[in-house]
Amino acid sequence: MSHHLDTPLAAQTGQLFIDDLYVFPGEGSTVFVMDVNSNVNGLHSEPGFHPEARYEFKVHFDGDAVEALTYRVSFGEPDADGRQGLRLHALAGEAARQDSAGGELVLEGHTGQTAAGGGARLWAGRIADSFYIDLSLLAIINKAVATGTAPELAGWRPQGARNSFAGTLVDSIVLDVSHAHPLLRPGARAGVWCATKLATDAGGWRQINRAGHPMMWPIFWPGDTDFSNPANTRHPSEDVAAAASYIGEQVAAVVAAMGTCGDPAGYGQAVAATLFPDVLPYVVGTPAVYGFAGFNGRTLADNAPEAMLSLVTSTAVPSGLTPAIAQNERSSTFPYVVPA
Known about the structure:
Elements: E1 18-25, E2 29-36, E3 53-61, E4 69-75, E5 85-92, E6 104-110, E7 115-117, E8 120-128, H1 135-147, E9 169-178, E10 189-199, E11 205-211, H2 216-220, H3 239-258, H4 264-275, E12 280-283, E13 289-291, E14 294-296, H5 304-313
Antiparallel strand pairs: 1-2, 2-9, 3-4, 3-10, 4-5, 5-6, 7-8, 8-9, 10-11, 10-12, 13-14
Helix pairs in contact: 1-3, 3-4
């Protein structure tokens, strides 16, 4: 019998849609955060994490095209109180790239509680979303990218910006891995992405959604509400051949219309080369920042939308919002998020 998420269209569920990926230093450790299942659109979404899915953090090293380390989180059915059992497996080397590999069981626990073991800590549950942007600004940039025209920013008033995510919730997975890990040692050059995968009736796994750099889907594939865009199922190693030229042309058209760059085509390809493969770069143990100065991981406070919108347009696009707007949705200690 087929289960109810056996087709791409039926898989349209927030439990499998990745909202954000963060990577930053912890307390002698590296912290990975994956947020899914936002209620910002007001639509019904099943609470918690999908029990037939896998949630995976993927780590490449030294610019390699493939991952050498995967952390896989899986969940059980919710109990009467909504709690779900969880398990964390680690897969290294060839196994990190194989859905059929079982990996090493690192720890077990339950949602809403910290689980620890094997040099790692894990917390998963519903939280207040720390992401912030005024979606009316995003709509302006979306239209420009889609039509290859200059964004209509004349009427945009940053001083009047409102956080469209204020009061919204997401389900978050927070993984903290000690610097004692042989691969995630200080100074290691990493590239991080995450993916949700769903079990198939044939016994395998289908990648449903993935994330690396922030804002990629909202800017370039805003209409992908049913996971039908092939970018969802690609591996990052396929990004350059599959989409770099197209994305570069989209960016070139916008900056040409704006007149913000003397070589629009060259700038577009440079942006594509920065964003593809779509993995988030991070030097382990260093301060994380995703901003105008560069990309090195991403903290919960970073104004990633402002950085990305400015990159795409080759000019400063002030969002009107600062990290202070969501300071109550962040914590300085593990699990760094604020449970709802």
